[in-house]
């Protein structure tokens, strides 16, 4: 099995707010640093990758944002027309189809077509080549929507295969589905926090990916992991200090902070143990909580070392 960043296509999926874009950016920097040509594809997102990496705002067309690194924030209509051009390989034919009212009405009525317009574009770049025949990108990272919408997007190729008549659209969906299910070329990276709700959602997503879609999961990334300050035997003692120290004492605030930290560490340990027990064969990457005044490129560079 290839190492994580040696795959051609990786979906980065997780509950909203767990740091998917941060993880995607860290993976992209790690892969680009190894000499891989990388594309980060966002799905009509509230774009913040440019802020994290301190580059120009990222729009709906592929743009270079660093050595070996491109990015795009895909917009459905723009992505559909661009994907159509990439597949048809003719600007004249592309315009004839996408400027035809009947065709566009039929496309809008196709289940999941907006999601497929973005997913199809990202997929196409796994087989896009340079004039010398080399792959344009060695790795495509899809920063997917949050869990529910992300899972819906991953279902789209199968839906198209099931409902679309034989033809170009169905053939493309079949080829994409074959890629997404091939563990040697593609897979999913699940992102979570060491907290109860994100962990439960991660485990549910893992089950759905296997049960419904037969898509391999290559890693679980647990973001914002606190360094352990207290041992298991020390945590109950520290947790009780808040009640034992008088409110008038100058140490009361310290005692409350210690109580909060001890509880957080206990929850974190339980959540990490739950992931390990539930997904024993899935590699786990832990990213530390970084306490920084401004979370920018230097922080992402630091996190990228984990990959």
Outline the structure in words.
The protein is an alpha/beta fold and 307 residues long. It has one domain: Rossmann fold, CATH 3.40.50.300. 50% of the residues lie in helices and 16% in strands. Strand 6, helix 9 and strand 7 form a beta-alpha-beta unit.
How are the elements arranged and paired?
Blueprint: E1 9-14, H1 20-33, E2 38-43, H2 49-53, E3 63-66, E4 69-74, H3 76-88, H4 91-98, H5 101-108, H6 113-124, E5 139-143, H7 147-163, H8 168-180, E6 186-193, H9 196-213, E7 217-225, H10 234-244, H11 252-278, E8 284-288, H12 297-304
Parallel strand pairs: 1-5, 1-6, 2-4, 2-5, 6-7, 7-8
Antiparallel strand pairs: 3-4
Helix pairs in contact: 1-12, 3-4, 3-6, 6-7, 7-8, 7-9, 10-11
Question: What's this model, at a glance?
Answer:
The protein is α/β, with parallel strands linked by helices and 307 residues long. It is built from twelve helices and eight strands.
């Amino acid at each position: 099995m290839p190492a994580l960043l040696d795959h051609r296509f990786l979906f980065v999926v997780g509950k909203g707010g767990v740091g998917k874009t941060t993880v995607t950016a860290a993976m992209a920097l790690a892969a680009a640093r190894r000499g891989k040509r990388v594309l980060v594809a966002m799905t009509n997102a509230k774009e913040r990758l440019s802020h994290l990496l301190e580059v120009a705002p990222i729009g709906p067309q592929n743009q270079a944002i660093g050595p070996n690194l491109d990015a795009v924030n895909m917009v459905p209509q723009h992505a559909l027309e661009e994907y159509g051009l990439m597949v048809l390989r003719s600007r004249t034919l592309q315009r004839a189809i996408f400027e035809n009212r009947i065709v566009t009405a039929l496309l809008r009525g196709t289940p999941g077509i907006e999601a497929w317009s973005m997913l199809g574009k990202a997929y196409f770049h796994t087989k896009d080549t340079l004039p010398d025949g080399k792959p344009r990108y060695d790795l495509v990272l899809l920063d997917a929507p949050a869990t529910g919408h992300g899972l819906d997007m991953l279902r789209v190729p199968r839906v198209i295969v099931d409902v679309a008549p034989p033809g170009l659209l169905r053939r493309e969906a079949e080829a994409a589905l074959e890629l997404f299910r091939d563990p040697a070329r593609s897979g999913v990276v699940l992102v979570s926090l060491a907290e109860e709700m994100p962990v439960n959602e991660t485990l549910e997503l893992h089950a759905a990916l296997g049960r419904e879609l037969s898509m391999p999961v290559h890693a679980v990334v647990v973001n914002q992991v606190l360094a352990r300050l207290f041992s298991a035997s020390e945590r109950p003692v520290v947790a009780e200090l808040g009640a034992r120290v008088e409110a008038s004492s100058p140490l009361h605030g310290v005692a409350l902070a210690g109580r909060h930290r001890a509880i957080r560490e206990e929850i974190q340990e339980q959540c990490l143990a739950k992931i390990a027990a539930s997904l024993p064969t899935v590699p786990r990457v832990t990213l530390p909580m970084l306490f920084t005044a401004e979370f920018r490129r230097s922080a992402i560079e630091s996190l990228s070392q984990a990959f």
